Amino acid sequence: MSEAIYVTVQADLKQKIYNGDFPDLKLPDERTLAAQYEVSRSSIKRALNVLVQQGVIFKKRGSGTFVNPLYLKNHDLFQHEGSNLGVSDSFRVDGKAPSIELLDFQVVPATPVQQQALFLNDGDFVYEIKRLRRLEGVPFMIERGYVPINVLPGLNKEIVSGSVYEYVENTKNRAVTKSFMTIMAEPSNAEDQQLLELSDKEPVGIMEGIFFMDDGTPLEFSNMRLHYKYLRYNAFVSIDSE
């Protein structure tokens, strides 16, 4: 089975779950799904295993495969859908894709923190990309991203006004598939209050992380400051071997 078919089956199953196509929260068995998608059972098993790892579904021995009701309840916030981890091309908020407003784009020397995060040397430069994300006109995220010039030369305002990760996938045949994230909250500053329409008494959520391409190369060090209403963290932890 090709990776494209595998991703398609997985994404379609997840979309059906979000659409409420399984009102009793139970999925058909693997044989039925294989017939519906016209693929092998091993392909269905692989797609289901990924959804299990993501916490979307769980398997109960002797009973079948079920939708995780807590995951379903929280799906109206950030949903990852796709082969990349970028906000614009793989996340949805309340089922809607965020729009992008480019606030600033420049080339700057990498700071010591950025050098460490992106495995750069003294004297290396990065693109500094500052963007505001909106949902139906309502601002919800200020994003500052730092991309090494030597990893992705040729970026311009047109590219960074859209999905950088989609550009990487289409032009470099690479996908951003891993990240290390820190999630926290702190009092909002003057810029947060202005751009995210917060009061001086409201906090801001922070997601800071390093995003890696599928060959292990760090592509971006990113700091995202969110309106606190959109900050929610879900974790699925498994200690068994399945």
UniProtKB/TrEMBL annotation:
UniProt keyword terms in alphabetical order: DNA-binding, Transcription, Transcription regulation
The molecular function terms of the Gene Ontology recorded here are: DNA binding; DNA-binding transcription factor activity
Task: Note the SMART domains from the entry.
Answer: HTH_GNTR (SM00345), UTRA (SM00866)
Checking Gene3D superfamilies in the record gives: Chorismate lyase-like (3.40.1410.10), Winged helix-like DNA-binding domain superfamily/Winged helix DNA-binding domain (1.10.10.10)
Q: Does the keyword Ribonucleoprotein apply?
A: no
Q: Name one GO biological process term.
A: negative regulation of DNA-templated transcription
**Organism's domain of life?**
Bacteria
| Pfam families cross-referenced by the UniProt entry | GntR (PF00392), UTRA (PF07702)
Q: Does the keyword Secreted apply?
A: no
Q: Which PANTHER family match?
A: HTH-TYPE TRANSCRIPTIONAL REGULATOR GMUR (PTHR44846:SF5), MANNOSYL-D-GLYCERATE TRANSPORT/METABOLISM SYSTEM REPRESSOR MNGR-RELATED (PTHR44846)
The name this protein carries in UniProt is GntR family transcriptional regulator
Q: Which organism is it from?
A: Leuconostoc lactis
